[in-house]
């Protein structure tokens, strides 16, 4: 005997609800990325090139987020995709983390090389474009901030924009310092600072995505606590084959076998168990199988 509960789509569809803002941020950052890249090559600024590289990952990351939203929406009617394509947003977040890590490592290596022989940098255009980049990133930051708390996909794009915003501040500072003092080392120094700031946040995002992909239990949930709470449901004498995992951002899923006491009523046990999971752990989708006490011997462990 078993029972399920409809998917809770609210948090999982956060990216879909914010797709208009994603498109606006995508267009804005794509335009500024081109301007920054061209100016960086013309002025010889590694800091500005670093900022353009980070903006490229912003654009690519938001593009992947939009592609995941589109694919997820189209997959909902496919009976073969019983969980839809919610995991696409997690894959997009992991892709963002890998791309941003690659850009940051490249900039760090290039900056170390330049410390030995810092090239002359044309600061005027560097400063103007950095200011434009800052304004674009502030706008994109505001567009993505509300959705970043609900979706790991949006969180990836948000973190990239946050890093790029701080990078633009750094480029402005480097340009001003070079103009005032002639200290050319400010350019690679700022590039290093941007990379050092971004890498730990990128790795945390990648780690969160990998946890979901390997179906580990959510960090904020203790599986033993879930087990004990289900075992405390009236009419339940034992809990086994308990699994808790995250399908996508904000959508925790659980399955379990509940052994019932003699005389316990199935409907009451299922209702109480689902209510406990919802109220105590915010698990909105649970598949629960109830078994009479005598049937426990016939329920062997899973082969995997």
From TrEMBL:
SUPFAM superfamilies: Cation efflux protein cytoplasmic domain-like, Cation efflux protein transmembrane domain-like. Residues 22-214 form the Cation efflux protein transmembrane domain. Residues 219-292 form the Cation efflux protein cytoplasmic domain. It comes from the Bacteria. It is a multi-pass membrane protein. It is found in: Membrane. Its main location: membrane. GO terms for cellular component: plasma membrane. InterPro entries: Cation_efflux, Cation_efflux_CTD, Cation_efflux_CTD_sf, Cation_efflux_TM, Cation_efflux_TMD_sf, CDF/SLC30A. Keywords: Ion transport, Membrane, Transmembrane, Transmembrane helix, Transport. Pfam families: Cation_efflux, ZT_dimer. GO terms for molecular function: zinc ion transmembrane transporter activity. The chain crosses the membrane at residues 22-49, 55-72, 84-109, 121-144, 156-178, 184-203. Belongs to the cation diffusion facilitator (CDF) transporter (TC 2.A.4) family. SLC30A subfamily. NCBIfam families: CDF (TIGR01297). This is Cation transporter. It comes from Micromonospora haikouensis.
